[in-house]
Amino acid sequence: MPSDIPSSRRDTILERLSAGQPVRSGALAVEFGLSEDAIRRDLRSLAAKGLCRRVYGGALPVVTGATPMAERVGEDVQRKQALAGAALSLIEPSSFVFVDNGSSNLALVEKLPPYLNLTIATSSITIAAALQQRDDIDLLVVGGMIDRMVGGAVDGTAIEAILRLNIDLCVLGACAVSVAGGVSAYDLADATFKRALTARSRRTIVLATNDKLGRRAPHRVCGIDKLAQIVVEHDADADCVRDLTETGATIVCAQT
Question: Which helix (H) or strand (E) holds 243?
Answer without folding.
Answer: helix 238-246
